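Per your request, structure below.
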């Protein structure tokens, strides 16, 4: 037998149901045909609320000089050839202008140096929050050309001897092959895949490193069997530039393969990319 609710319960308990969750639940049931799929509707509503809160909470906590920006989710997938509207995204809070930036400018430090430091900071902050920024994001945020961003990244990477975590490098999309080439060189230097994971910056997962290593080994095997670079590109479904990058490494470490493959008697020149992130839209 159910206990009769008290007067206070009768008065106040219904007020607990005045929530956005229940408003959406009613909408799904009455407007979108989920009257027999209420459980599914509730799961969807939970995800919708989580998404809304991801936007609302960071905005309320923004400090002067900070920016709320949408980054592509760093979920372990490449999302190659995927339209941005179909690509998972996460909101990230970025320190656009810091007190250190202003102090450096006040001390007459070169603005390009300050900008490069800012770009490095934004890329690192996005990665720490589960997202990755494309070079196009930095171009839009700083109101400069894509080429200027590319030059900034190249300068910092040379100075700091590390790979900055922009989308092209982290998710290995477009024409970026630097991580794959680095994995191949480390393999040739005698490092094992788990060790290579820790040596790369940013750190890669073991599954990705094993895939890169196996691709390089497959290129070696096919070259030993006399296949041409174009044939290898088609067989392994990898870009010609990556094949030629691997061949450059093979010229250095395996001259015997060059000797027995007529296609490699002339040292290849790796094709130059039009931009570090290829032709894909990543803004």
């Amino acid at each position: 037998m159910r206990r009769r609710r008290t007067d206070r319960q009768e008065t106040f308990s219904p007020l607990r149901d005045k929530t956005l969750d229940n408003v959406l639940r009613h909408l799904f049931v009455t407007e979108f045909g989920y009257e027999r799929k209420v459980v599914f509707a509730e799961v969807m509503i939970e995800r919708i609320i989580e998404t809304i809160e991801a936007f609302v909470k960071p905005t309320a906590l923004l400090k002067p000089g900070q920016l709320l920006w949408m980054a592509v989710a760093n979920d372990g997938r490449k999302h190659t050839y995927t339209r941005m509207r179909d690509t998972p995204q996460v909101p990230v809070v970025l320190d656009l202008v810091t007190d250190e930036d202003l102090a450096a400018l006040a001390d007459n430090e070169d603005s390009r140096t300050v900008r490069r430091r800012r770009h490095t900071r934004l890329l690192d902050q996005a990665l720490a929050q589960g997202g990755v920024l494309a070079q196009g994001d930095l171009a839009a945020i700083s109101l400069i050309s894509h080429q200027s961003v590319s030059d900034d990244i190249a300068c910092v990477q040379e100075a700091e001897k590390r790979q900055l975590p922009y989308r092209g490098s982290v998710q290995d999309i477009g024409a970026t092959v630097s991580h794959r080439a680095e994995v191949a060189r480390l393999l040739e230097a005698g490092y094992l895949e788990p060790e290579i994971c820790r040596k790369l910056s940013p750190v890669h997962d073991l599954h990705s490193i094993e895939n890169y290593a196996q691709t390089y080994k497959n290129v070696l095997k096919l070259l030993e069997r006399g296949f041409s670079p174009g044939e290898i590109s088609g067989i392994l479904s990898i870009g010609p530039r990556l094949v030629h990058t691997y061949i450059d490494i093979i010229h250095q470490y395996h001259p015997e393969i060059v000797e027995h493959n007529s296609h490699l008697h002339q040292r290849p020149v790796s094709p130059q990319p039009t931009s570090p992130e290829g032709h894909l839209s990543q803004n």
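The radius of gyration is 26 Å.

Regards,
D.
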